[in-house]
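An instance as discussed:

___
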Amino acid sequence: NIFSVGEEMEMMKPNGENVTVTVRRMEDEEGTPMESCPHPQQIFYVDLGVELDEFDILRRPENEPIALEG
């Protein structure tokens, strides 16, 4: 699943709380800025503007269409 800078994501917390966050910045393993993460199993770093806790899960909000490139 591709996602991009500027996209809203949902952070699911272990306590059941869901928090909406925006992807502010993405970088590859070497620190090079990226606009999207298009490759399966690609290692990258993402700035959501909030601290993540262990076991938080990042996903697209429910009922959001997934853009397919082809």
In short: The chain has no helices and six strands. The two ends are 13 Å apart (CA to CA). Residues 36 and 45 are 11 Å apart (CA to CA). The first strand starts at residue 8 and ends at 12.
